[in-house]
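FW: tagging you since you asked about this chain on Friday. Here's the raw sequence from the shared folder, copied in full. Didn't touch anything.
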Amino acid sequence: MFGVWFIFTTFVNHYSERKSTKNMNTYQTVLRKMRTEAQTPVQYYLSLEEGELPMNDLLGQQLTLRFAGYHCLHCGQPKEIYRQGLCKKCFFEAPEVGEWIIRPELSKAHLGIEDRDLAYEQQVQLQPHLLYLANSSEVKVGVTRKTQMPTRWIDQGAHEALVMLEVPNRYLAGIGEVALKAHISDKTNWRKMLTNTVQVVDLNMIKQGLKAFLPQETLSYFSEEVPIYHINYPVLRYPTKVTSLTMPKTLQYQGRLMGIKGQYLLFEDNTVFNVRGHEGFVVEISFS
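HL: got it, structure written out here
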C-alpha cells in the first residue's frame, strides 16, 4: 500500500511541477547571441531547442534568469566557458576564434598561410569585408564581413553607421582599421551605449576627414556615395546607470524587461544582461 501511495504522490507532484512550469513559460537553453531582423524597431529572437523566442514580445514582463551550467559551443562538453562561448581548450584550438578574428590585420589566408585551419580561414577571410564607422555612444571604426551588415552594427548597439571601404578580403579591412585607430576609437563605450548617451555627429564629414589616413593599397576601395544606415531599438525606457548581471556570480535574477539594445537585455532596476557575453551558458528563462 505504501508503494502505491508513493507512486501516486510522486506522479501528482511531477504533474504539478510540469503544469506550473508550463504556466510560467519556462525554457532551458544554451545561450547564443540573439538573432536579429533589421526592422523598425529591430526584432530580437533567442534560440531555443524548440525554435525561437521572440524577445520583443516580452517587453514589460517579469523575467527570471537562472544559471544552470555550461555547454561549450565547439566541443559540446559541459566544461566551464572560458571566452566567446568556448571552453579553454577549444578557445586556443578552434579555428573560429583565431586571433585574426579580433585583429583582422593578422589575416593571412590571402597568402595561403594557415593559422589553425586554412580551409576555414580562406572561407571566412577571402570574401568581401567592410571598414565602417559606427556611432553608438561616440564614433568608432570597425571591420565586418559584408554579409554581416547590418547585423554587426545592431550587435554593437549603434544607432547609425556608414561604410568607408568595401574590400575583397579581411586583411585589407584590417590594415585600414589599424591605420585609423590612431585617430579614432575602435571600441564601444557600452555603458554610454546602454544609457543612450548619444553624440550627434556628421558621419560623412568624419569619413572624409579620415580618408587621408588610409593605407595607399586600400584607397581604390573607398566608398564615396553610400547612405548612412539608421537603427532603432525596442526600448521602453533606458537605464539611468547600468549594473551588469554576470553569471555564475549571480545564480538567479528576476526583473522587468524594459528594452533590448545591442546584445543586452535592459531591466527596470538598471540591471543589464549581455546575452552574447554569456554564450555557452546553460540558462533557464521563465516569464508569465
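FW: The two ends are 39 Å apart (CA to CA).
HL: agreed, and Residues 1-22 have pLDDT under 50 and may be disordered.
FW: great, closing this out.
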